[in-house]
Each structure stands twice: as C-alpha cells, then as structure tokens.
Amino acid sequence: MRDGFVRVAAATPKIRVADPEYNRKEIVKLMLEGEKQQVEVMVFPELCLTGYTCQDLFLQYPLLRRAKEELGEIVKASCDLNMLIFVGLPWERNGKLYNVVAAVCRGKLLGLVPKKNLPNYSEFYELRHFCPGNDRPEEAPDGFDGQPVPMGSRLLFRCAGHPELTVAAEICEDVWVPCPPSIRHALEGATLIVNCSASDETTGKDVYRHDLICGQSARLVCGYVYANAGEGESTQDLVFGGQNIIAENGTCLAESGRFANSFLVADLDLERLNSERRRMTTFGAAHDLSGAGFGGDGEHGYQTVYFSLDGEKQQKGREKAQQPDRLLRFIDKAPFVPHDPGQRSRRCEEILSIQSMGLKKRLEHTGCRSAVIGISGGLDSTLALLVTARAFDMLGIPREQICCVTMPCYGTTDRTYQNACAMTGKIGASLKEIPVRDAVDLHFKDIGHDPAVHDVTYENSQARERTQILMDLANQLNGMVIGTGDMSELALGWATYNGDHMSMYAVNVGVPKTLVRHLVRYYADTCGEEELARVLYDVLDTPVSPELLPPEDGKISQKTEDLVGPYELHDFFLYYVLRFGYMPSKIYRLALQAFDGEYDRKVIARWLDVFYRRFFAQQFKRSCLPDGPKVGSVAVSPRGDLRMPSDACRQIWLEDVEKIKDEKCNESERNG
User: Fold this and answer.
1) Selected residue with higher pLDDT from 73 and 557
2) Looking at beta carbons, which pairs linking 23-29 to residues 24 or more positions away fall under 8 Å?
3) Residue 536 has pLDDT above 60, yes or no
4) Nearest one of 332, 254, 325 to 5, comparing CA atoms
5) pLDDT at residue 292, rounded to an integer
6) Are 354 and 519 in contact (CB under 8 A)?
C-alpha cells in the first residue's frame, strides 16, 4: 500500500461443476495473474471451488472432502503471493453444512465467513443443503491440516501496519436483505467489504445489482468488491453472467460486462474513505452510543484476525512495471466539473438555481429592489450578472433595476469594456460608466505614491476605489452590492482586501474558477438569445485578468494565470486539500496522472508549492468573507465548511512539498 491505495480484484474463473481440482487450478491461475498486477486483495465467487449449482451433490462426502483438500492447495499456492484472497466453498462443521468464504493470505487460512441469509424462494433453495452461519466467531476444529480456525460472520481481517485496510466479507444474498451484515462490519471498522456471489441473470437484474452495490458502498462509506459466478456453472435452469463490480463510496470504479468471465482490477483509496468517515460525525454515532450495538453484548461479538503484506516486495514489483506510480482508477483533472455532458448541464442548472435562490432570499429579506454590480467584461462579473438577472426574474423586479457599473482605469482594454457594455444591454440591466483614473491619480497624490511605480499599491488602489463607488451607489439606490469573486480566487487570496474582496452578498463564493467557465457557457448555450450568446462566448475567450496594469498594444498585459498559476491546477489542489485533507505528496501523485501530457513534474511541483504558501498566508481574507451560498462539497466560507485559524503554521505541509521538489531534482540528475 502507498498513499492509502489498495489494489483489489474481482475474478471469475471458468469452472466445472463438481470438479474442485479443475476449479482450483483455474483459481490459482488467476491468483498468479493478480500477483503480476500487484493485486493486494482478490475476491472469487461464491462456492467457486465446487460450483454453486451442485444441488444435491453438496450432500456427497467425496465433493466436500475434495473441496477442502483443494482449499489446502490454494493455501500452499498463496505462500509466495503478496495478497489476501477470498474464495467460496462448502464447509462441514459439527454435522452441519455451511456456505462459507475462506480468507487466505501468504500460506495461512485466516478464517471462514459463513453465509447468514440463505435464499429459499423463486429459483433458490439453499436451505435444502446449508445452515445459516453463526455471528460470533467460534473455532472450527476441523480446519485445514487439523488446525483450528475462527468461523463466523463477525470476522475482521486487518492488515498489520496498515489498519486502514480492514476487510470483512458477506456472501451474495447477505447484501440483498434489509439489514446486511456489511452494515455492522462497517460500523466495527471495516473499510473494505468483499462479496463472493452467485447471482443468476434475469432481465434488468444487472442494473439493480449495480445500484445495490454502489449504493451500499455509499451508505457505508467503504470500498466494495463484488465477484460473481459466471460461465461454467450449470445452465440446467439458470444462467450466470459474471458481472463483477468494484465500488467506492457510491462511485463505480470498475464494472465488467456480462456473459464473459472477467478479471477486474482497480485501486481503492482508503484514505479517502477514512477522511469521509472522520468528517461525517454521524457515521456510527448511534452504534457507538448504544454500547451493545446490534448484538446485545458489550464486545459486539467481533474477532479481529491480522494479516500482513510485504510492502517492500510490492514496491519492487511495481518498480518493474512501465509506470509504477500509475493508479488503476480514473483521476479527473476537473473534479468540480462533471465529466458527462448531460450531467454537467444538469449540474450547471442546479448551481445557477442555488445561487439565484440565495440572492432572491437576501433581496426579499432586506427589501432591496435594486442591485449594483461592478461589470468588467470578465468571467466572474458576467456570472454574477446572470445570477442576479435570474433572481430579479424570480422576484418579478424589472431587470433595469440592476445597476451595472463599468469603471475604466489604467488597464481597461477595448475588448472587455465593449463586452461589459454589450452584455448589460442584452441582459436588460442599466449601465453606468464611471472612469476612476482621475480619482486614483488624486489618491496617489494624497498618499505620496508615484503612479509610475506599478506595485501592489498601484493595483490595489484601483480595486478599492471601485469598491467605494459600488458601495456608495448602493446607498444612493437603496440597493445591494453583488460580489463577483469566485472560490478559487479566495483560496489563493487573489483579491484586494476591502476591495473586490468585499460586497453585500457574494453569489460566486462557492464556485471554483473552472466551474465558472462552464456556468457561463451553459447560459450562453441555453439562453436562446443569439446576440447575448455571442458576447458571452467572447467573454469566455478573453484571458483571465484583473486589468490593473496598462495594456500592451491595446491588449491585456496582466494575465492572472501567468502570475499565480493555472486555475485548473489550483482547483485540483483545492479539491483534494479541503475535501479529503491529503498529504501534498499524494495530491502531487494524483496530479501527475490527471494532467499527464499537459504539465510536467516541475510545473506541477512549482504551483503546488505556490498553492500551499498562498492558501495559508491568505486565510485572513477568508475569515471575514461576506455571506454567499455554498453550492458544492467544498467551500471556503468561515460559516460554511472552512473554520481555519488565520495564523496557522504551514510548515508541515511545506516540508512534504520540499520532499517532492528534492525527489524531482534527484530524478533530473539521474536522467541527466
């Protein structure tokens, strides 16, 4: 395991019904394939050593004895393999037969987990052959090689040295019942649930099965590996499609097609799961307070069995691979923006509605029937205007009572000025033009600043003059100043304190820059007004800039992303810093994969360093933000998601960043 990732596999071998020796050989082949791919947890289907469809042959001693013998061969075969393996078989104990999953690791049979819920309806009649499994683990004295092993549904398999990898098992029907065993497993600390299954195919069942597994992983905030029986089972009355699923907290990481036996591999992020559980203070709260939990005994009847994985062997194996750091999971470079176009459109509509409803309530409550917006011709002020227009429509207030103010100064270009004016007209708002150059020149004279010195004073004086005008106009109109700054700017502190940092309601405060662009594009695509759309598309094509420095040859000279870095990188960093609290080194690793071919290691490391330095240094600006609506799972408002001291030390984060930079330098020397 590295950075909290564990590689898991759901494997469906082609079997022969009632032929444990053949089935064992097929299982071992897949185990060896898993070792090549550095799989650490591998899951096989229910009763796969014998076949699920043996029917009354389960009552035959030859089959039961041979199944146990072949399990012994699997245990031996696992000696040199660096993985935890779950395989299904029938198991006799004290004159009763159980449908169990055997947990095997590095030459040891760790335990047996029996099936609790035996279906005996429709095409199923498991109670004819098997008994429901016990909850509390008991020793099975007739274990492999005469050695007793724990047997019970309340077994946890915990990786020594990596307690975040705690595995529990349930079998097929167990997850279909109203109160699956996996609920309790998760409350007892299991982060990964495995399910050895033999679920036959009927029309539409694959969709339900997908939703069931993904939903259970979301409800329990866990990883879930579902291995299903496939080709090779008897088709006398049933067909098994081998649909395998790997899910993580509601997200399907990988899913096989049906009607073809598959070997499905993915990397689960256990740190992500633990982060979610820490954040959700309601997770397991009732269970913890009850003391006895579901079972009525103080210890909850669970037994923990420890296993170990050889991290050094695993690392050496990965170093032999072409891309040892490559994760077998999709890393979205735009985590705030849905990948699917249809879902992205729905998300944009939802966010615009949240922003507009928030502003509508504030306008209603304060009795304001006018709004003041500093309109620059840039993305953020454009979005603020679109949202305000929606809110006014909801309230039945004429749009001309939206006062858009353009305030040209030293850095204003014709393109942004013309777009600001055109957009205001197409929306139906009113427009005021108030040049601020003379006021800023007078201010420089008052404070003794040389206007030829283009420093932070030169830039911020313009921003503060503009904010003063907006505030005073709002007083004149009995209106409200609508803030335009977005969440990415606030995360980086890219706002003038008591300048554009301040407003009376900040509609964009919960929207990252990468999403602002999609919201404006969505509005342009769906507004049905050709001229307005044309202006919005040109705004989208304009470089992001505060326009505080004089233009060069009439074009924008000050490009924000040249100064603070690409917003798509910073939004990526922001998501993983605030949503999951990852180490910088882990975020760096994810970024390398997400932006492969777009940014090299040096560039990503540089801007990650900038992000952390600015994020910590600029918290004082976020501590006094105006009100504004939260729209997603990440926010920086001190009253929403981020309660962070303004004087926090950033040293431990920067130490990890420095290690990244050192490793990068060493690699350059080796390659040089």
Assistant:
1) 73
2) 23/48, 23/49, 23/50, 23/51, 23/70, 24/49, 24/70, 24/71, 24/73, 24/74, 27/74, 27/87, 28/73, 28/74, 28/77
3) yes
4) 325
5) 39
6) no
**pLDDT > 90 in the chain, percent:** 79
CA distance 627 to 507: 8
Q: Please state, in angstroms and rounded to a whole number, the distance separating the CA atoms of residues 168 and 222.
A: 11
User: How far is the C-alpha of 11 from the C-alpha of 36, rounded, in Å?
Assistant: 14
Three-class HEC string of 520-577: HHHHHHHCCCHHHHHHHHHHHHCCCCCCCCCCECCECCCCHHHHHCCHHHHHHHHHHH
pLDDT value at 144 more than 80: no
Measure Cα distances from 436 to 159, 442, 466 in Å: 65, 10, 7
The token pair that represents 93 in the structure block: 């104990």
Identified catalytic residue from 68, 115, 513, 630: 115
Helix (H, G, I), strand (E, B) or coil at 433: strand
Largest CA distance in the chain: 101
Task: Supply the CATH classification number for the domain 5-320.
Answer: 3.60.110.10
Rounded CA separation 270/165 (Å):
7
- Angle at Cα 573 formed by Cα 568 and Cα 579, nearest 5°? 120
Catalytic residue among 172, 222, 403, 409: 172
Which residues have CB under 8 Å from 554's CB, separation 6+?
A: 413, 414
Round to whole Å and give the CA distance between 21 and 69.
Answer: 9
276 is catalytic: no
Mark whether 126 is an active-site residue. Answer: no
**Residue 458 scores a pLDDT above 70:** yes
- Token code pair at residue 280: 């959700």
115 is catalytic: yes
pLDDT of residue 284: 77
Q: Where are the beta strands (DSSP E) in 454-519?
A: 480-483, 505-506
Q: Which of 26, 46, 255, 547 is catalytic?
A: 46
Does the pLDDT value for residue 568 go beyond 80? yes
The pair of three-digit structure tokens given for residue 409, joined into one six-digit string: 């100064």
Tell me the CATH number for domain 341-670.
3.40.50.620
Residue 154, pLDDT > 80, answer: yes
Global pTM value: 0.89
Residue 248 contacts residue 220 (beta carbons within 8 Å)? no
Q: What is the 3-state secondary structure (H, E, C) of 77-111?
A: HCCCCCCEEEEEEEEEECCEEEEEEEEEECCEEEE
DSSP code, position 54: G
| Overall residue count recorded for the chain in this entry | 672
DSSP category for residue 621:
H
Q: Would you list the domain boundaries of the chain?
A: 5-320, 341-670
Q: In this predicted model, what pLDDT tens digit does every residue of 234-290 receive, in sequence order?
A: 888 889 998 999 999 999 999 998 888 889 999 999 999 999 999 888 887 656 544
